[in-house]
From TrEMBL:
Organism for this UniProt entry: Aromatoleum petrolei
Coiled coil: none
Span of the signal peptide: none
Keywords linked to the UniProt accession: ATP-binding, DNA-binding, Nucleotide-binding, Transcription, Transcription regulation
Domain Sigma-54 factor interaction: 342-570
Origin: domain of life: Bacteria
Record-given protein name: GAF domain-containing protein
InterPro entries reported in the protein's UniProt record: AAA+_ATPase, AAA_lid_NorR, GAF-like_dom_sf, Homeodomain-like_sf, HTH_Fis, P-loop_NTPase, Sigma_54_int, Sigma_54_int_dom_ATP-bd_1
Classification via SMART domains: AAA (SM00382)
Amino acid sequence: MEMNQFGSRQALLDSLAGGKSIPLGMAIPTRQRIARSQQRSEQEYCLDPAGVAQERVLTAGSLAELKEREERFLRIATPGLSWLHQQIGGLGYCTLLTDRTGATIDRRAAPRYEREFETHGLRVGACWSEQDQGTCGIGTALVDCAPLLVHETEHFLVRNHGISCSAVPLFGPCEEILGVLNTTAISANTNRSCQAVAYNLSLLTASRIEQAIFFEENASNWVIRLSVHPENWTPDDSILLAFDEEGRVLCMSRQLKHQLPTPYGDLRIEGLLDVTAERLLNFAHTNPGVPITIPCVLGVSSVHAQIRAPRKAVRVSQSKGTHTPAEVPSSNGTVAPDFGGLAVADQKLLESISRIKLLANNRIPILLLGETGAGKERFARAIHDYSVRRDKPFIAINCAAIPDALIESELFGYKEGAFTGARVKGNAGKIAQANGGTLFLDEIGDMPLALQTRLLRVLAEGEIVALGASAPERVDVSVICATHRDLPAMVRDKLFREDLFYRLNAATFRIPALRERSDVPEVIRTVFAEEATSANRRLALSPDTELRLLRYRWPGNVRELRNVLRYAIAVCTTNLVEPRHLPEAFGQALSADPPARRRPFHHAESEDCKDAERTAMINALTQCGWKATAACRRLGMSRSTFYRKLKEHCIVPSTPRVHGDHKD
Ligand SMILES: Nc1ncnc2c1ncn2[C@@H]1O[C@H](COP(=O)(O)OP(=O)(O)OP(=O)(O)O)[C@@H](O)[C@H]1O
């Protein structure tokens, strides 16, 4: 056996035994981490411990946008959050889930403690970054990328001295931080060690969530779960490996990655276990769901394994009645099971998906056309997840939402001192961040001409030149673009480069508007099920409600559908969502505008309509103090549509805020 193979197998056993190496942040003693954080709070963020500064809470609009962005993460993490709450909620603990910046996106609290938690700022929308709160569980765990318990007076701000927080960062399969799971007790009034149970439960739950994310991200791969304890499959004691039919390891648990002597680029199943992938797959096909013991390190040691088939392979074993419920695609076939969990049963769309799958690994740029909210970004993400690049970054950038002057540095990055105001260390642009993975350029039609030339170079030569750089850098990105614009017309009008158009145009797919699809009932049911799960509710749609949803034309497409359902679920206090739970404006739109005549607001065609649209936008902006987010909400438009319309109607903001209020 080669030396490095021995090393890999030993690494596997080490990580199953609890691991030798400790993640960087954890290697530093807690007291030292807290002291460093206190220093940062004072010197870097200039916070006043006794200050009465307002806590930062996101506005309802920003929170809704954030939740939409984090929808997938929320959906996967919610069962873990609820489980943790069931364990300790009754003991006076509040559980929080935040995004990667420390903004709270979900919370569980027993009703009798709710008010007290609110007064301590433990509410959805509250920002718990270190910059906002100084030393605190969530913020400091995010800075150190490691779990942390911050007990009472260890908090920097005096107003937080009454709480004790156990915070655990949640990592995705590429080791990127996705958010934080946190439990907080109020007035624990005991010593630090009494928080050990909450801290350990949080660690265990975080491992469960990370494993759920791993399974989801690797839905189209084979996944093997390994443990040295056959009777005990806790996430702490097991390692996950995702691999393809040829036995190439595509992804693995963090514990193992940290133990491996070398990067795992070419690692195969037989590099870790005394068995070939072929034998494992044969076993899995003939004994689905049955655990297996596999020798490792020349038969001296052995590990216990469970194998999960890719979702697409489940259909094969279905006839044997052997699948587990979690792996079964919905019986009505609404979800394309191995394509990002998308709700699709429309025949044309399914055909597009079959073709996209053939192209996903061929380095051919893909162009997605479709109205706002039709699902272009979800599709782009599904393509990335289906491709061999799935464990590399997926970077999305909306060309319409960034002022022209900033697009260049956002995309290509800049070197130190490239322009006045440039960060001291320079900044890697989005293209460099996407290296190895996928770059999704939304609203490509809004990219300025000069940058189109530079994008062409990236596509043609695989090179980028950052602002202020003297030499090009090689990058390997798969590019997916999207637009609602008529690119051929833009080429005719010399607004879009012809050569770039032909490069992007090779594989073009149109995502139909929801009203054009033949699978609206299935989409409604799937999105409803997703929203109910994410709200942790067991709900049904009444036939009457479903009928109303079916009669509507959905100008805002699946996004609008999701928002309507989210609203209905939030206001429904029974188990049945009825027409009275639908938003009021939805009912009015339905009665005033029978389907055949109804036209979406943003598809107004006549000049009169255009004038009306311009006036409506200016009114909304004026009423909202030229804040883009609030105006979008008032108009019921997505940000990208809003910025596009702003340009189309030549509306110039009275102050530069309209481009700069991302933080509102
Ligand atoms: N097939 C689908 N199944 C489930 N949800 C979907 C589907 N398509 C879209 N959605 C949901 O609709 C919302 C909007 O989707 P997305 O952001 O992908 O649209 P878009 O076409 O990129 O919009 P825009 O052009 O405004 O950026 C998201 O919440 C997404 O999860």
